[in-house]
């Protein structure tokens, strides 16, 4: 199964992708994670992306499409994948369509996670991850069972993202509405769009997405 999780920054795409990865045995492909790895490695792409990401703007379509076209070809995603944070512009969506066409492959579903802007700032400014395994947490909404200890790996070091501050979040929301939201219509017209309520509890959202995807699989 090949699907896209579409939604604003902080909608819960990464949180749900990690759960769907386990449930369906397909891989999460996050362009944000890939770009952060490039920045950390100091590669040429990373150097180009760093300042853009810190400003909360979108990295060029050329860079992002280049990154994703390398990974969708790999054997480990032959079973399917969850695109998290890609595509983010109509040009990226068109490039993805062309890539899929070339492989005689297609998307099964685009899941839109609907969340009001009013809660996104709190979601993003409270977000942190385990430094060892990358598991995602939130200061208020998703605490580890034992304070300071990762549920997943027992790690005790955590990190926050450089761009998860209130100012950058505002630019990221502007970018989402101007450049990414048009994809709702783009995939709606193709008949691929399913919308879920991303304001619900994390477990509820998982249930709703799984139910949507089970129906798509059965169809
Ligand atoms: P995205 O990948 O869409 O940017 P994340 O999955 O990283 O979003 O979620 C942003 C933050 O909000 C994280 O700290 C996460 O723990 C928290 N979160 C995710 N889903 C929910 C939810 N349904 N309710 C409350 N908090 C959530
Ligand atoms: P979030 O879901 O919280 O917005 P991501 O991890 O998906 O965060 O993205 C972080 C940043 O990486 C974005 O603000 C943007 O600068 C860059 N980025 C990630 N994916 C893309 C993409 N598909 N196109 C352009 N820029 C991207
Ligand atoms: Zn961990």
Description of the molecule:
This protein has 219 residues and is an alpha/beta fold. 49% of the residues lie in helices and 15% in strands. The protein contains 9 helices and 8 strands. A 5-stranded parallel beta sheet has the order 2-3-1-4-8, sandwiched between helices. A 3-stranded antiparallel beta sheet has the order 6-5-7. Strand 5 and strand 6 form a beta hairpin. Helix 1 packs across helix 9 (202-218), helix 2 (31-41) crosses helix 3 (44-55) and helix 6 (117-125) crosses helix 7 (166-180). The chain is globular and about 45 Å long. The structure holds adenosine-5'-diphosphate (2 copies) and zinc ion. Residues 130, 132-133, 135, 150, 152-153, 155 line the site of zinc ion (ZN).
Give the termini distance in whole angstroms.
12 Å
Going by helix content, strand content and strand pairing, the class is alpha/beta
State the helical fraction: 40-55%
How many β strands by DSSP? 8
Distinct small-molecule ligands in the complex: adenosine-5'-diphosphate, zinc ion
Mean pLDDT: 96
Adjacency order of strands in the biggest sheet: 2-3-1-4-8
Estimate the strand proportion. Answer: 15-25%
Shape: globular
Number of alpha- plus pi-helical segments: 9
Secondary-structure element string: EHEHHHEHEHEEEHHEH
What's the main sheet like? 5 strands, parallel
